[in-house]
């Protein structure tokens, strides 16, 4: 069993920055591909970014490319999402997810474990 705990959400003005963190436990972190998704109430969960087990491969949604950066520190069992130039439409609950086997980074169904989520609110 893998436990994921996100932190770092909050309220920020448009154009500002936030860094989300997700700490994993219960399994060797370097065996997990990791992803970030987000969800607005009433809408489907949306892929944001993903990173492979050793960090050699990253994938981004077009909507965040060039503004968000995903990274990981396997020594700290942590994956990060640095969010810059935030826009109103980035407001959502952000979820961290972990995948153990076959990796389809953009597909929520590919992930085996999910965190509880952290709220990000971007104001004008």
- The number of strands is 11
Listing every helix as H and every strand as E from the N terminus to the C terminus, the arrangement reads EEEEEEEEEEE
How large is the share of residues in beta strands?
over 45%
Low-confidence residue ranges: none
- What does the main sheet amount to? 7 strands, mixed
Please work out how many helical segments DSSP would assign: 0
Which geometry do the CA atoms define? globular
Kindly, what is the distance between the CA atoms of the first and last residues, rounded to a whole number of angstroms?
A: 40 Å
Helix and strand content put the structural class at mainly beta
Radius of gyration: 13 Å
Mean of the pLDDT scores? 96
Roughly how much helix do the residues carry, as a percent range? Answer: under 10%
Explained architecture:
The chain has 124 residues and is an all-beta fold. 0% of the residues lie in helices and 49% in strands. The chain has no helices and eleven strands. The chain has strands spanning 3-7, 10-13, 18-25, 33-39, 46-51, 58-60, 68-73, 78-83, 92-99, 113-114, 118-123. The strands form two sheets. Strands 2, 4, 5, 6, 9, 10 and 11 form a seven-stranded mixed sheet that branches. β4 (33-39) and β5 form a beta hairpin. It is globular and about 40 Å long. The N and C termini lie far apart (40 Å). The model has no long low-confidence stretch (mean pLDDT 96).
Task: Summarize the model shown.
By secondary structure, the protein is an all-beta fold. It has strands spanning 3-7, 10-13, 18-25, 33-39, 46-51, 58-60, 68-73, 78-83, 92-99, 113-114, 118-123.
């Amino acid at each position: 069993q893998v436990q994921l705990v996100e932190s770092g959400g909050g309220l920020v003005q448009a154009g500002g920055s936030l860094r989300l963190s997700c700490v994993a436990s219960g399994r060797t972190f370097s065996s997990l591909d990791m992803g970030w998704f987000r969800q607005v109430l009433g809408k489907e969960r949306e892929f944001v970014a993903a990173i492979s087990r050793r960090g050699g491969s990253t994938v981004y949604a077009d909507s965040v490319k060039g503004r968000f950066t995903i990274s990981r520190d396997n020594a700290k069992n942590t994956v990060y999402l640095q969010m810059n130039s935030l826009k109103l439409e980035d407001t959502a609950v952000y979820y961290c997810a972990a995948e153990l086997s076959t990796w389809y980074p953009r597909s929520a169904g590919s992930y085996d474990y999910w965190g509880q989520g952290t709220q990000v609110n971007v104001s004008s």
